[in-house]
Structures are given as structure tokens and as C-alpha cells.
Specification:
Elements: H1 2-22, E1 41-44, E2 49-52, E3 58-60, E4 63-66, E5 77-83, E6 90-97, E7 100-103, E8 111-113, E9 123-125, E10 134-142, E11 145-155, E12 157-162, H2 173-182, E13 186-187, H3 190-198, E14 207-208, E15 213-218, E16 233-239, E17 248-254, E18 259-262, H4 271-280, E19 284-285, H5 288-297, E20 306-307, E21 313-317, E22 330-333, E23 345-350
Parallel strand pairs: 2-11, 14-17, 20-23
Antiparallel strand pairs: 1-4, 3-9, 5-6, 5-10, 6-7, 8-9, 10-11, 12-17, 13-17, 14-15, 15-16, 18-23, 19-23, 20-21, 21-22
Keywords: Disulfide bond, Extracellular matrix, Glycoprotein, Hyaluronic acid, Immunoglobulin domain, Repeat, Secreted, Signal
Subcellular location: Secreted, Extracellular space, Extracellular matrix
Disulfide bonds: 204-225, 303-324
């Protein structure tokens, strides 16, 4: 056995010598394996999703767990960013390092660290807006150590399909964004549409979503809506050209701080008369999103068709009854009548100061 081992070692030495002769420029390399004892910095969130409403305040959780063997540091950096709906980029929200703190863009003056302890990186957000909905990343950097956690901010609200006076399938993506904003709403996300579908939403017209896809929810399969023999679900047209493709849109809105009401008036009104009547009452003619929010979130119910700001005529029903949406609770749509027709009342909205 010993002579065999000696022979093997001599053979290996000769082989290495031959390699040096054949490849004089070949550099010798060495593999070094580094074994770590695990991360010395962890960032965690007690909740993966936080739910609030427009106008409310919320705390996005982010707690730091730091190895006690790490030397004390006064340069720990905490950074909060918001992920865009397509996850392709991040929007700066808040950065803190020691006494230096800064908030960005629409978050300026509305965000700060909870700071219950040195290991608390939770972010407090005030006066929540519709645009605040989404996913947020908490990143902590401490010397060579770093870690992140993602928290979702969800809003209580309602999704509604929308198309303007021009008719169906007339909105490119950017027109759709503006159409929702004009009605006190934003373009809905897929998650919001999915929640609405789970709640019974059934709509057979395709609409834009915030990620640039075009989809529509079906609870009762039927011929014109993907086929009668298909399963219920959200039909997906995929991502579409935001400039050239034209569809309807699914909008999302949440609670509002003002008062939505039907104006008691001695006579029916044209559209222009309706606008002036609300103004005379110290209000503005209500928007479609405000009606949907009042209907869904405040259970508003009124069996009177009335003008809205986009010159459509609608009325909200929570208690189905004869002549008032007898089969389902819904916001009933009477179309876009001639603005000169003196056939309808008006819904107004008064902001609380």
C-alpha cells in the first residue's frame, strides 16, 4: 500500500510539472470557502399587509433585529421606497440616518418614523391618498450588513367600470388615467379588481388596469363574454400598447370626507341648471366616484335619477325594490342624455372643511 501511495504522489508531482512546462502563463488558482454564522442584521414586519382608508393614518411595520456582537453604529441607514405596479422601479419615500431625515415628493410632510425604539424603523403615514395604495420596501443598511422587507398598503374602497360620453372602447391608457381622476378615482390594480370579482363583480367589457394590462371580471360565464362553457374568472387580454390601444377602464375610489346628497329641488333640471343648483347650495355637482363610494361604503340609497359631473345620469340602490333595480343592489346607469333635457334631478357633493 505504501509503495502505491508514493507512486501516486510522484505521478501528481510530475503532472503539475508538465502543466507548468506546457502552459507557462497559466496562473495557479485557489478556492477559498467562507463559512458564515448567518446574517447579523434582520428586518421583519409583524404584518405583511396593512389596511386603511383615504384620509386615514397608518403605520407600516418594520422592526430591526441586530446581532449584539456588532459594534455600536450611529450611521445605520433606513430607507423606505414604494414599488411601482409593474415592479420595474422604486419611488423614494423616506430616508433617515442618525439625525438626518428626508421625505420625498407627494410624501413630503406626511411620513415619519414611529421611533418607539432604536430598533423600530416603522413608517407612519398620515392623510392617506388613493395614490398611496401599493407595496412599500423597508431597507436597513448597517455597515456591511443590510436587509429588506416589503409591506402592502391596502385601501378600503370600491372598483367601478367607466367609459366617457364618447362611448365604449375610446380610452388609451393615459386617457383612462385622466378619466378616473376626473371622477375622484384612480385606475384600479389587478388585486383590487380580483377582490371586486370575489365580491360578485361581473362586467363584460374589457378595461385598463394600473399595470397596463386589459382585463374584465366574469362571475356568470356566457357566450359574448369568453364563452358559456368557460369557468368564472378574470379574462385577461394581457399588456397592451398604452398609446394605440383603446378600451374602457376600471377605476378605484375610497371613502371621502365630504357629504354626498341628492338635492331637493322644486323642478327637474337641465345639466347646466344642475351644476348651478349645486353651486348655489354651497357644493359642487358630484362625480361618479363619489356616488360609487357613497353607495358601496356608506350604503347610500336613493331611487331618483340625477345628473353627475360627467353629464351622465345615475342613481344608487342598496335595497332592491320594484322600479328601483328590483334584482340587485347597484348604481343604475341611465346613459348620457342630451344636456338640455329637463328630466332629472342632481347629486351634489360638499367638502367638509
Amino acid at each position: 500500500m505504501i509503495p502505491l501511495l508514493i507512486y501516486a504522489l510522484v505521478s501528481l508531482s510530475v503532472a503539475e510539472t508538465n502543466l507548468d512546462i506546457l502552459y507557462p502563463k497559466l496562473e495557479h488558482s485557489r478556492t477559498i470557502y467562507v463559512i458564515e454564522n448567518g446574517p447579523k442584521l434582520n428586518v421583519t414586519a409583524e404584518q405583511g399587509k396593512v389596511v386603511t382608508r383615504r384620509g386615514g393614518n397608518v403605520t407600516l411595520p418594520c422592526k430591526i433585529q441586530r446581532d449584539q456582537q456588532l459594534p455600536p453604529s450611529n450611521k445605520m441607514r433606513i430607507k423606505w421606497t414604494k414599488l411601482t405596479s409593474d415592479y420595474l422601479r422604486e419611488v423614494d419615500v423616506f430616508v433617515a440616518m442618525g439625525y438626518h431625515k428626508r421625505s420625498y415628493g407627494s410624501f413630503h410632510g406626511r411620513v415619519h418614523l414611529q421611533g418607539s425604539s432604536l430598533m423600530d424603523a416603522s413608517l407612519v403615514m398620515t392623510d392617506i391618498t388613493l395614490d398611496d395604495y401599493g407595496r412599500y420596501k423597508c431597507e436597513v443598511i448597517d455597515g456591511l450588513e443590510d436587509d429588506t422587507v416589503v409591506v402592502s398598503l391596502d385601501l378600503e374602497g370600491v372598483v367601478f367600470p367607466y367609459f366617457p360620453r364618447l362611448g365604449r372602447y375610446n380610452l388609451n391608457f393615459y386617457d383612462a388615467e385622466q378619466a378616473c381622476r376626473d371622477q375622484d378615482a384612480v385606475v384600479a390594480s389587478f388585486d383590487q379588481l380580483h377582490d371586486a370579482w370575489q365580491g360578485g363583480m361581473d362586467w363584460c367589457n374589457a378595461g385598463w388596469l394600473s399595470d397596463g394590462s386589459v382585463q374584465y371580471p366574469i362571475t356568470t360565464p356566457r357566450g359574448p363574454c369568453g364563452g358559456k362553457n368557460t369557468v368564472p374568472g378574470i379574462r385577461n387580454y394581457g399588456l397592451r400598447d398604452k398609446d394605440k390601444s383603446h378600451y374602457d377602464v376600471f377605476c378605484f375610489t375610497s371613502f371621502h370626507k365630504g357629504d354626498f346628497y341628492y338635492l331637493i329641488h322644486p323642478s327637474k333640471l337641465t345639466y347646466d341648471e344642475a351644476v348651478r343648483a349645486c353651486q348655489k347650495d354651497g357644493a359642487q355637482i358630484a362625480k361618479v366616484g363619489q356616488m360609487f363610494a357613497a353607495w358601496k361604503l356608506n350604503k347610500y340609497d336613493r331611487c331618483d335619477a340625477g345628473w353627475l359631473a360627467d353629464a351622465s345620469v345615475r342613481y344608487p340602490i342598496n335595497h332592491p325594490r320594484r322600479r328601483c333595480s328590483p334584482t340587485e343592489a347597484a348604481v343604475r346607469f341611465n346613459g348620457f342624455p342630451d344636456k338640455k333635457h329637463k328630466l332629472y334631478g342632481v347629486y351634489c357633493y360638499k367638502e367638509n372643511i
